[in-house]
Amino acid sequence: MNTTSINSIQDVSVRPAGQHVTRPDQIPVTGPEFFLIHNRGFNYYGIDLSSTDIDRLEDVISACDAVERSTWTAQENFYEYFKKCNLLIYAEKDGRVVGFCLASLLLINEYCFFTNDETMVLKECQGFNIALY
Known about the structure:
Blueprint: E1 35-39, E2 42-48, H1 58-71, H2 78-83, E3 87-93, E4 96-108, E5 111-121
Antiparallel strand pairs: 1-2, 2-3, 3-4, 4-5
């Protein structure tokens, strides 16, 4: 059992240098239009990337990128990798993304093929079963 307090999550820089462009129509990390569920102190959000303007997701994408950078050394540019996926599910605590899952979906007639392309959780939040919801 992880005894790390979820309230002691360290702040992580959320944007790579030089990539911050604020748009008035930005979707915030805590945007209610993508809220799914609240469970055990975490809020979960889901975004269909194939039907959402990626440019409106700057804050969300950079927050997920910060989670990845704090967890491991990426093999490719996160922003380019992100654009290849169809679905983003992320967990948020106190206004910060603490974990995410990028997935791809392929629908053929009545068949659905789902691939979990990447899942990352901040070390401070591992052990809280964030990736299971």
